[in-house]
Amino acid sequence: MGLLDILLGRTKPVAPDLDQLFALPSAAVTLEVAAGFTPTGVGAVCFATVEGAAFEQMHREVQALLDADTDRTGPPVELRRDGYGYSWLVSRRSPDQLPELVNDLHAVNSSLEVNGFGPQLLCSLAGFTDGTGRKLALVYLYKRGTFYPFAPLPGAAERRDTALELQLRATLGDDLRIEQDLGRWFPVWGAPGL
Description:
InterPro entries: PspAB-like (IPR054383)
Pfam family, one: PspAB
Protein name: DUF4192 domain-containing protein
Distance between the termini: 39 Å
Number of domains: 1
Number of strands: 6
Largest sheet: 6 strands, antiparallel
Structural class: alpha+beta
Organism: Streptomyces canarius
Strand content: 15-25%
Shape: globular
Order of helices and strands: HHEHEEHEEEH
Strand order of the largest sheet: 2-3-1-4-5-6
């Protein structure tokens, strides 16, 4: 950062720290004890849609890497597009395999980053449920290096449980680097894993 950047109030973006994802298993324990939410076994990486041979090659490499694991439930990495035009690489595991799911998410993020698709990365998420119909995602913002909880209201069209999200912000503050700017707690409606 130069003097002109400082004078104009520009800030240097936070470098992504994918190792923050490895804090999810300990946060899951806190989440279960404090709020009764357990992992669903589904996680996803969201990015701006990318077309072309380079992306297809990277997707095949990630799929082959994760296919090597025989303890997987469902397809290793599934590519989906949402109604908003974003792409999701989805990984499915059994609910008791959260550390393995986190490894999958880390591998997908790292592969996208190493192959030059880092600027298109938006977020990663891991899904949770409390068994009564309430769902929750712990969302990792790639460009900020922080997490936030996203809790859609069951049965409600695009409404979220902000009271629960704020409660979980306080609950998970010792386990995860929580995003302090609530304006960046973007809803991820229809995200795989929810």
